Amino acid sequence: MVKSHYFVIKPEKEIYHGGYEVYRKNGQLEERGYFDHGDKTSYIKFNSSGQVIKELSDSEQTTRTYFSNGELKSIEVTRNGEPTGTWTTYELNGCGKPFLTSAKEFQDGKVISKSESINHIFLGVSSVNTLITQDTFGKADTIHVNTTCDVIYPSEARRNQIEGTLFIKINLTADCDFNYELINELGYGIEDQFIDNLEQAKKKLKVNRNCQEIEVTIPMQFKLQ
Q1: Dist. CA 89–CA 93, nearest whole Å
Q2: Where are the beta strands (DSSP E) in the chain?
Q3: Helices marked H in the chain — which ranges?
Q4: How far from 34 is each of 25, 142, 176, CA to CA, in Å?
Q5: Residue 168 pLDDT more than 70?
Q6: What is the per-residue pLDDT across 7-33, written as a single tens digit (0 to 9) for each?
Q7: Distance between CA atoms of residues 153 and 190, nearest Å
Q8: Rounded CA gap, 48 and 225, in Å?
Q9: Is the pTM of this model over 0.90?
Q10: pLDDT tens per residue across span 115-142
Q11: Residue 25 — φ and ψ, nearest 5°?
């Protein structure tokens, strides 16, 4: 079984040049890249799931980490050893989807803007994450970022080839008074999963008296593959 594959320049000594590949014991690709007369100028490293965890291109290096379920956990970028670009970190919501907890924008090794999560609420079918962004001049802005969960396609709806988008309107007050409304219905058991989750979220929010005021309409798309 091939362990690695690369080119060398001879006869003086082995100097790597050109493309190369490195494999794990099970034959899975672990790394591929390029040497220019002995200097590694670019590469991509993969984890055991085939996801890119680190890459180098023109002295800019990007490192990614992942949660055990395969979702993205963080991104860090450096150029010549200094932070550059956007660095981000994530957490998982109640249905295992990542939401942004912090982001920093670097320029010439210095932070020029940053975002921090100040409030995150899981609503059973989606999450609403409140971010506050601030630049170097102290100007701040607050935004709400919505992350929806994976939908379940009921077998009855699949048999009847039902497609469409279900719209759910959600209203949450600062006192945690939570209400929702199904703007439309697709039928065949599609709405049931969301109603159950929303009712559970409503009960949990009743014991929490520190909520962020939110009014949002969430689209849940159903499309047969």
Answers
A1: 13
A2: 4-5, 8-9, 15-16, 18-23, 29-36, 39-46, 52-57, 60-66, 72-79, 82-83, 85-92, 98-107, 110-122, 126-135, 140-148, 164-172, 178-182, 214-222
A3: 155-159, 190-206
A4: 22, 43, 55
A5: yes
A6: 888 656 788 888 999 999 999 999 999
A7: 7
A8: 27
A9: no
A10: 999 888 888 888 888 889 888 787 888 8
A11: -60, -30
Neighbours of 75 (CB within 10 A): 16
Tokens 């396609």 belong to residue: 153
Q: Which of 223, 221, 212, 222 is nearest to 127 (CA)?
A: 212
Structure tokens at 3: 């362990």
As given in the structure block, the two tokens for residue 161 are 């080839």
Match 């803007």 to its residue by tokens. Answer: 113
Query: To which H or E segment does residue 138 belong?
Result: none
- Which amino acid is present at 186? L
User: Tokens representing 185?
Assistant: 């219905």
Q: What is the rounded distance in angstroms from the CA atom of residue 148 to the CA atom of residue 186?
A: 18
DSSP bridge partners of 170: 180, 216
